[in-house]
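re: ur question from the group chat, yeah i did fold both. here u go
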Amino acid sequence: MKHEELLSLKGKVAVVTGAASGIGKGCADFLSDMGADVVLLDVSREKGEAAAAGIGPTAQFMQCDITDESQCEAMSEKVKDQFGRVDILVNCAGVIRRKSVVDLAEKDWDIVIDVGLKGIFLVSKHLIPIMSSGGGGSIINIGSGWGIQGGPNAAAYCAAKGGVTNLTRAMAIDHGPQNVRVNCVSPGDTDTPLLRDEARQLGIDEGEWLAESADRPLARLGEPRDIAMAVYFLASDLSGWVTGANIVVDGGGTA
């Protein structure tokens, strides 16, 4: 295979959840740049449509609450009808509530787990059959450094991301025979609306919070594109014998 063929995603269809902003939007943008047709999923129609329009004609938005199975099923049918295939799935949607188990409300536990973990289950459940019927593909679940180590006042988020890491391994085992590779990318602190919202939740000055978050060996915050490039590697043929892996992209924060 020529280098150009290894690097290009031309002719492939990628579905990205949580794609209206942050890391999800960065992944959708980069995968499109590399040639893929991209379907952006998000619960926010206004932000999702704007994100797709910003990418251009190779991108389209589909509104979908990934915690609702009926919506995930309808989305999968629409993707199949329009494209006939799915080659790449990036499960990126997530929310965070900065509370300990003592202070956390049950409804906040539920939304963090439902969006960050259940959503991966439901979207994957309905897109894997399309992917496998087309000869296989690549699923990239977005985890977190807090999926491999704990963090303060983030009990539900740590639980969800720890689940993502091990769910990735289980999915890799189950679907490898169908030539569906499943891997995880675990970012460190990345400059996104989610990270900035944490400052508000904790009552910390945003500038102070971002400076503190950049305190790591590479001495800067991550950018969505940093994460997107790792996702691209796992989505492309460059990683054809990689499955069940977790790639930590955090500027050395967990080193």
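okk and heres the other one u asked abt
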Amino acid sequence: MGNDAAPTVRRAEPRDARSIAEVHVRAWQEAYAHLLPAAFLAALDVDAREDRWRGLVADPDLTVLVAERDGRVVGWASAGAGRDDEPVRDRELEGIYVLAGHHGSGTGQALLDAAVGTEPAFLWVADRNPRAEAFYRRNGFERDGARKHVPIGPAGLDAVRMVR
């Protein structure tokens, strides 16, 4: 990537909804090309996600963060009390995505640190996503044996829970 400077990580604002949605769509297309049908990924709608993100950013119970490099949003993270019926920890890393061109730049680490720090937490990660799982393992997360199928698009994704 060539940019050794640390990213700027800050709390998201309503004006960031479009940028978060753009990163969300592009990061899914990059990260899940081996897990979801190409036609589904190509049809992801930034406009629909922008509306959803506007609401999520405004939710006082959810922490939404953005990472910027050179004034552009290149990643985001969200964390909250947990969406599971019986959360195994008090904090869930609900999502974290960084554009592939910024992998290895410290952006994901900065987002994770700001979202959950080193506190006990849990997350769900797509099974067969070795890059993401290795990142979480480096940060003290381990699979706990819980699995679920997440209905996404025509096929869905199998996910595994990781905790620390």
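fwiw on the second one: The mean pLDDT is 95. DSSP finds five helices and seven strands in the chain. idk if thats what u expected
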